[in-house]
Amino acid sequence: MTDRPLILWFRRDLRLADHPMLTAAVLSGRPLIPVFVLDPETESLGAAAKWRLGLAIEKFAASLAGLGAQLVLRRGAAAVCLQDLITETNAAGVMWQRLYDPASKARDMAVKASLKAKGLIAQSFPGALLFEPWDVATGQGGYYKVYTPFWRAVKTRVVSAPEAAPKALRPPTLWPRSDALATWRLGADMRRGAAVVEPYQRVGEAAALLRLDQFIDQAVAGYQADRDFPGIADATSGLSENLAWGEIGPRRIWYAGQRAMLAGAAGAEHFLKELVWREFAYHLMHHSPQILTQSWREGWDAFPWRGDNADAEAWRRGKTGEPFVDAAMREMYVTGRMHNRARMIVGSYLTKHLLTDWRVGQAWFADCLTDWDPAANAMGWQWVAGCGPDAAPYFRVFNPAGQAEKFDADQHYRRRWVAELSPRPGAEALAYFSAVPKSWQLDPAARYPMPIIDLAEGRARALAAYAQRNA
Description:
Blueprint: E1 6-10, H1 20-27, E2 32-38, H2 40-43, H3 47-65, E3 72-75, H4 78-89, E4 93-97, H5 102-117, E5 121-125, H6 147-154, H7 181-184, H8 193-197, H9 205-218, H10 223-226, H11 240-244, H12 250-262, H13 268-287, H14 310-316, H15 323-335, H16 340-353, H17 358-368, H18 374-385, H19 400-407, H20 412-417, H21 427-435, H22 455-469
């Protein structure tokens, strides 16, 4: 009975270790067929995310090849592709790691129901999070809506140890047909930007584990003190990129952080809090999935934010005349990521100084980030806009100039990314102009723009609008 293979449906979990589904599959003793399906839900990813996914798939396929296995690629509706593979291979069923966004949950529930109706194995596993979102509840049985109580509720919970990577996978008698990854053209929308962004990516499980080890050894002690200064190199772990595609598991990071904390590393607990901030985002998305598309706080969709507009376009192009904002937007376009402190500043500037709908910013980040994460992106934008899970939202308006003075006093970050601020701009600042669409007609020799809005005026306008809404 164990000769019929299992289809292992990989998605955002492209690793071998800390993988409950893969561990269970190996223990079954069956032949295993790893599969990635490019379905409509995956096709809808933004340009940078889809391109980065392609790099992750390529690296993961190489890891599987080292175990004597293949990663079978199919394109189409997941239910159809999986059923075709079952028919072709006489597979006993399908296993997968859970996802939690509404579209993925609906797809996975339909797949599970269809397989079980045919008497086939249909089993989902945890692995993307430390705690399943439904396993954390308030004393009244509800869900947490504020981060700090959530942290207190989970910080002492037992987290099971991550499993080791398997040493081999039992192959099927015959491998089914596979698409060639190149035919998917996952990087097509990146155009000339791909060559600029690629050197900043650290792709695959081995790179993620090395990144974690280096951070714990060299930087975690100073994490709490240094993490808000974007000009300090490697002050943060950079693991959001690898977590986004499941190239490292959260339990592996949790255990490394716990060991550092027990060893006395001053910043280790704060690092763990940031990992749990990600958990909180998924907790909210599970219990209130409207957070992805609607203002989380009731009544906020009636707030008079502007839709897309010319000021928002200047924001997208890093031409607002606010150097800290523009540096952050250009950093994202060149590297595929943005420093966390900078994310808060550019988000506040767009939604408050420019009174632009947070969904405009959310969509641009979804298109540009190689570490794009549906839950973290939505919660972050709503938090900074004032309509999300924050105890004191509306009157917090980050002043970009004040933030720059505090967190970039030597102007290292701003000059690193904004070519017009230096008589001899560096290669990274100039790279922005090699990455952007030619239709933008940007020139590094052009005069740096004047601010599109006076900061005091923008703040006053935002506070007046918020006060009117709360009147």
